[in-house]
Amino acid sequence: MPESTESTSAQFAGLDALAYVHDLPALSASLKQQFSDFRVDEELGFAFTGQGEHVCINIKKTDLSTIEVAKRLSEVTGARKSSIGYAGMKDKRGECTQWFSVQLTELEERALQNFESPSLQILETHRNSRKIRIGSHKSNHFQIRLRDCIGQQSEFDDRLSRIKREGVPNYFGSQRFGWQMSNMTQVQALMISELDKSVPADADSTVSKKRFKRGMLYSAARSYLFNQLLSQRLESRSWNTYLPGDVLNLNGTDRCFVLPDGAEWDQELQQRLDQFDIHITGVLPGLIDMKDKYVSRGESADIEEAVCKQYDTLLEGLKRCGLQASRRAFRFLPSELKWQWIDAGDDNENENADKNENSNTGGAQDLILDFSLPKGAYATSLLRELCITT
């Protein structure tokens, strides 16, 4: 096992310790006071075949996690949990529509008539030849109501305009890390036991027996290391500035590229970066395939190594467990970002953004946000740059 000052009691900093684009917001608002305050609609990235052994179901869920919905589908239809697919996790506390797939015959499909409840509604169904896989969605559309906004309305507007223009740090949200970073404490213990077999795993833990739980903890470790790297690049003001050896991502795709040996960063590439056609990426740590062409080098690699080496147990544990390294863009740009102000307690979303433009909201107004995000981007990362939410 590599030498490290880390231990099972290692303290992992929360998201409030990560750097901001400009500064810590002095604004505040209340989030998710009602389920309807947080609405998410998932858009898939493919068309249905219209036939096949899988039934794709668009489900509206309220105050239920994605896993709870999948469990309910399994109970009602008798389908194995492993045959149920979905593109990604959606927030529990909110009104969310997302797609699930279940492997069912036409006769078995009739069982879906027993699925609905006050918190679950089937919006539409389609036959498809393939199961819905993680990451197969294109985007998520959000409508979020921030209640009792405290601070100058003009400051909220200015920050939103800046977000719309400059983009947002692509941090992983708090959902990845569990209550009070509990996933990080668990994955630290798991990695120590993986690296040193003489150290027994927690006797109360069933992690080693649960493939899903282990996968979730691996994701938490990689996400935490990525967040630390992005925070470092923000502090050095290089999160949206090319450094020698950076790996770049083509907007809206999973494709990456690096500059050929001897090539220089030029005005055309800078223009593409400024226009959000390409993005700088950071590493999601793990094993690096010798054939992988998209590996950071030079100054960029030095920064990644320095940040990740602070968490040797996580870094080496991910490699020992066979996780393959990948890349993630450092930023995202919300599409079609709109907002409007309404009187607090008023459910009529009448646009009045010009009303009392320079007044202090003093808790008298609510703010409605409407935008779409690419897959993998967190709405909470956008909200973090706008205001403190409670």
Write the layout of secondary structure elements.
Layout: E1 28-30, E2 38-44, E3 54-62, H1 66-77, E4 85-86, E5 95-103, H2 106-109, E6 120-128, E7 137-150, H3 153-166, E8 168-169, H4 182-195, H5 211-235, E9 248-250, E10 256-257, H6 267-274, E11 278-284, H7 298-308, H8 312-320, E12 326-329, E13 331-332, E14 335-343, E15 365-374, H9 379-386, E16 388-389
Parallel strand pairs: 1-16, 2-5
Antiparallel strand pairs: 1-7, 2-7, 3-5, 3-6, 4-5, 7-15, 8-13, 9-10, 9-11, 11-12, 14-15
Structural notes for this entry:
- With 390 residues, the protein is an alpha+beta fold.
- The protein folds into 3 domains: 15-22 and 174-332, Pseudouridine synthase; 28-35 and 142-167 and 336-389, no CATH class; 46-135, TruD, catalytic domain (Pseudouridine synthase, 2-Layer Sandwich), CATH 3.30.2350.
- 27% of the residues lie in helices and 24% in strands.
- It has 9 helices and 16 strands.
- The protein has helices spanning 66-77, 106-109, 153-166, 182-195, 211-235, 267-274, 298-308, 312-320, 379-386; strands at 28-30, 38-44, 54-62, 85-86, 95-103, 120-128, 137-150, 168-169, 248-250, 256-257, 278-284, 326-329, 331-332, 335-343, 365-374, 388-389.
- Strands 1, 2, 3, 4, 5, 6, 7, 14, 15 and 16 form a 10-stranded mixed β-sheet that branches. It has a 4-stranded antiparallel β-sheet with strand order 10-9-11-12. Strands 8-13 form a two-stranded antiparallel ribbon.
- Strand 9 and strand 10 form a beta hairpin.
- Helix 4 (182-195) crosses helix 5 (211-235) and helix 5 packs across helix 7 (298-308).
- The longest helix is centred in the middle third of the chain and has 25 residues, at 211-235.
- The chain starts with 27 loop residues before the first strand and ends with a strand.
- The model is unreliable at 1-5 and 349-359 (pLDDT under 50).
